[in-house]
Amino acid sequence: MSSAKPSKTVPGTASPLLAWYDRHARVLPWRISPDERAHGVVADPYRVWLSEIMLQQTTVQAVKPYFAAFVTRWPTVEDLAAAETEDVMKAWAGLGYYSRARNLKRCADVVAEDHGGRFPDTEEGLLTLPGVGPYTAAAIAAIAFDRPAAVVDGNIERVFTRLFEFETPLPSAKSEIRTFVAAATPADRPGDFAQALMDLGATICTPRRPACALCPLTGDCQARKSGRQEQFPVKLPKKAKPVRLGAAFVAERGDGAVLLVKRPDKGLLGGMTGLPTTNWTVRADGETGAKSAPFQAEWRSKGVISHVFTHFELRLEVFHAVVTAIPDHEGWWSDSDSLPGEALPTVMKKALGAAYPALFRKGKS
DNA sequence: GAGCCGTGGAT
DNA sequence: TATCCAAGGCT
User: Fold this and answer.
1) Has domain A14-231 been given CATH number 1.10.1040.10?
2) What class of enzyme is it (predicted)?
């Protein structure tokens, strides 16, 4: 239940917002500026789609270099469809949420093979694509095809829960928010409208200390009127993150190459490259020491690295050994030339950094 | 609906 | 240091 009353329209919202956007739109590599759009420049659906997938739960700053690398290497959806999944995973390494990368490749294949290389231009059609959910379908429909879709992301949730003081905690309030956004979305410039709301949420209507004095909607905002703008959105309390323990093993061959393995396609770090590890368990038992190594060697501890995942914290003890006899073990040996290009998630680079401080500093390659 | 799924920057 | 959280989707 919400204290906000349903309404068919949101008077005065679209016009001042778009006027603000015309002056203050962020300049982003995947974006058509409001001026360009007004002069008939059309967005490239491939770039809009790629950016929207990368931006899921990920900051603009983190996405920028990945977006540039992808569009340089794979300028069109056909190019991406022709790529090897393994190369896509390598290019995605470090960005997180790796199921996005697999779905990205699957989606490119579907668009290339089933849709003649053209993205569906309706929300319903886009929703059928792998990795494209309600938000992304609406965003692509609005931004790439200028359709009046109700785009609701985290920014827009924050803006609307403040405008109308939604007391219902997220995520329960989502459907109600969507109704309000749909009512507010104009038939004219729906793509710019959605991007304007997101820019407003990112730069003015921020989670903490929103700059209400600079907001084009400040006169329409109920939370601002009552001075409770920082109380919204209301969210359910979060669960504490348990700690899991484990061990990782850096086996070095005589020539310096390191043994790597491919992780299962599903689950944590699915489809990515990693070091051989134990299972990661909440119990500090015999499965976390050198004796749990995949094969016999002169294992020496190189310390414990800590890494925080979405739903648990990992403390990983890293063991290193120079192996003389080549062990019978799955995987491949990667030398110093190929190692930086492997599909290694950040936690694995951290573990390698414990064994080779000079090569992997702070988890970077 | 709720759990799973990464990472790095800001405060 | 601890906490939050950023253009969510899948199961």
Assistant:
1) no
2) hydrolase
